[in-house]
Amino acid sequence: MFDSLSDRLSEAFKNFKGQGRLDEKNIQDGMREVRLALLEADVNFKVVKEFVEKVKERALGQEVQKNLSVGQQVIKIVNEELTLLLGGEQEGLVLKGKPAKIMMVGLQGAGKTTSAAKIALYLRRKKYKPYLVPADVYRPAAIEQLTVLAKQLDMPVYPSTTEMNPVDICRDAIVKAEEAGCDVMLLDTAGRLHIDELLMEELAGIKAACSPDEILFVADAMTGQDAVNVAATFDEKLDVTGVVLTKMDGDARGGAALSIKSVTGKCVKFVGMGEKLSDLELFYPDRAASRILG
Ligand code: GDP
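YS: structure for the whole thing
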């Protein structure tokens, strides 16, 4: 995760080696490289522009810190700004409903079903009793997939069929989850290859019927800026509460992680780091920034 960006930035910071102090010229030169590194990492163009301006401004206004070299001063500013770009503070799940409801949304193949099961496992480790709800009735394999994962995890799952209506499934599942003594429900909704109006209406219907505590937009990190654009559309329609970025294990660039907060205002809450159900991590912006800067 972030490997190529990390390499490119450490190259960029070599510009400051041996420089006595920060001035307009060396900041300009160094930041040109940082800008290129971020663009190569597939970070949103506007986000890069604002980021570079901010770092330049702070670097120029910087009091000389005698204990830090010029390079270290710039790295410190970049680290702080990268942390903000990645979301600032770590944001966990906010679960208040009884039972609490987490609705997973996103395009087909993004990793919704896998992430629903991963989050269920994460929550069980936090002493919750999760209930899984397959609400993608268009792909029989999707119901089967979540049912198999539920069996693997030894968790109760709603007996959805492809003849049922997704809104009815979710509504009825609330009753069944309560009967089963569960306190958190994971609603796995349908995806499409592309955004379409009907899907959005269905998701809005589920949202209205269930009032989810969390609506998590699940995005495949490897799709970079596409993931960010799709996130913005889902957020416009559904007002999502957070993002799960999957397949971070295969994403060396990091463009989606670095742009999604600025573009949508929503934080990455979890990252998927592999196909196994235990491959889920809370996302800590400050740790990710430090990792990028080596
Ligand atoms: P859905 O259509 O959105 O429900 O997507 P799925 O949950 O079926 O996931 C699509 C594929 O991505 C599956 O093969 C998953 O195993 C894989 N996948 C999901 N999350 C991750 C992840 O974090 N890392 C990797 N490497 N693969 C993942």
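YS: worth flagging: The pocket of guanosine-5'-diphosphate is lined by residues 106, 108-114, 191, 218, 246-247, 249-250, 272-275, 279 (CB under 6 Å).
IM: good catch. Also The mean pLDDT is 94.
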